[in-house]
Amino acid sequence: MKSQHLNEGHERRINAEREGPSTSYVNGVVLKGLGECGVRITPDCRITNDQSLTASELIALLEERGWSWPRQWYRRNRNYLQHDASAVHLEKEVEKGRWIHIVVSPARSSRPRRIVGRRMVADWTLPPRDIELHAERDWLRPSSFKHLWSFVRDVLGSRRR
Fold first, then answer.
1. How far apart are CA 91 and CA 106, in angstroms?
2. Domain positions in the chain
3. Of 38, 63, 82, 83, which cross-links 51 as Cys (Cβ 3.0–4.6 Å)?
């Protein structure tokens, strides 16, 4: 029985490396304890927010469950090329050496300008506009210099082609 369990775990990891993690892995390991609050991944890879938590409530919930961003960084990840500039980035080591990156983008609401017209601003009192969840290449820690250099090499390498 024990060897069968080990083989199943090994096969699950091999499949996760080839095809990405399964829905059950993401819900059971990555989003552990969040399902009771209506936050889970669907088979079509959407993150649910069944209780209509506001963006700020969702961030607080994630932080209660161990998600964070290193305090020594001046700002949270600000990859403006791929993510919303007002988004909050959090990371968590879900298994030894396996890091996940979550990006929560606030809703936008219209506010009057001082002079004329209206402008769109981030509104953390509404449910998030978008929630993105992903692992970096090789499960690297999103805030690590190793990931930063990997990203820079990828960007520079794609420009040379």
1. 17
2. 2-160
3. 38
